[in-house]
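tool_call predict_complex ligand=D-serine
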Amino acid sequence: MADADPDVKRAVDGEIVRQNDGLELIASESYASMAVLEAMSSVMTNKYAEGYPHKRYYGGCEFVDVAEDLAVERAKKLFGAEHVNVQPHSGTQANMAVYLSVLNYGDTILGLNLSHGGHLSHGHPVNFSGRLYKPEYYQVSEKTGMLDMSEVASVARRVKPKLIICGYSAYPRTVDFKAFREIADEVGAFLMADIAHIAGLIAAGVHPSPVKYADFITTTTHKTLRGPRGAMILCKEQYAKQVDKAVFPGTQGGPFMHTIAAKAVCFKLAMETDFQDCMRQIVVNSKRLAGNLNSSGFNLVSGGTDNHLMLVDLRGRKLTGKVAEAALGEAGIIVNKNTIPFDPETPFVTSGIRIGTPCVTIRGMKDAEMDLIGGMINEVLSNIGDASVKSGVRKRVLELCRRHPVYV
Ligand code: DSN
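tool_result ok
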């Protein structure tokens, strides 16, 4: 690459330095292992393999079949699922395939409002999901910041959805999949759990699993699972054929076989004790950091966290998410601005930031480092216009990162 395209090489090298030298607190990110990166950059990228293992529309698929068989078998074992499709290119495409498999144009879907922690592909009006289907929303309680399952049930009774979606992008609490199943059964709806954020926690037994309860489960593979950028669908055997048809030929063409090989590697690693320990520590660290921020006077949506992320409500500090994200970024602390429930600001400004601990935990950081990070966040956000505070924190961030390297 250095010879063929030095410009892109410089950008990639810059990104390696950025990832090594910054404190990554974006809740949806993690670091793929070298084995996953190696599989992703393999020659399997060259291969067309439309179809499914041993039933392809192309010759020469004997080795990519091995990779896809391994990915499917390992994912089934990891989650205890009856059927798995590992071909979706992204979480949104996985969701699209599930919708296509059981919904008709105009059917009602019920998901969590985006600004309360849901996802664009759960029925937002600008997304295909809100344009092709009739979206209805439930929300978190204004008082607790948490889901109130009796409220969800009453919305479901009123709108009578064909599909209920649970599983979120910015919800810091445990999801009660059993209660969602009961509601789905009562109103005669399918239940889909989008576990993209918490898939690694579920695989490690740190968050309850939806496998017993949901008809369909979708997840990306690059968040807490630590795999390649991509996704998969888990479902009950009775939906296997229609889900597979909805992925290919329904919504995708050739699968990314290099990515599927990397998914297989990721699932193998996710069965190891080291991975399970890491997922447990992510939650321990998240609670520790949430406690630290709480004691510095920050308000957290729902008061804390049960998982890998927390949402900081900055209104008490008279700050917006946009300003906080930029100030922390200057100090080498990377977060994303995020709407909070009932946010008075626009999604581009927001009143909150979302903070997650997967990346810092993968780097080996624990309690002591969470306290340091909480202290630095407080320092920057308490001195928002002070350049010397930011550059002082930047130096300490660098020291901390150098003690916990990512890619060496
Ligand atoms: N963009 C992802 C996130 O940050 O949560 C969701 O797709």
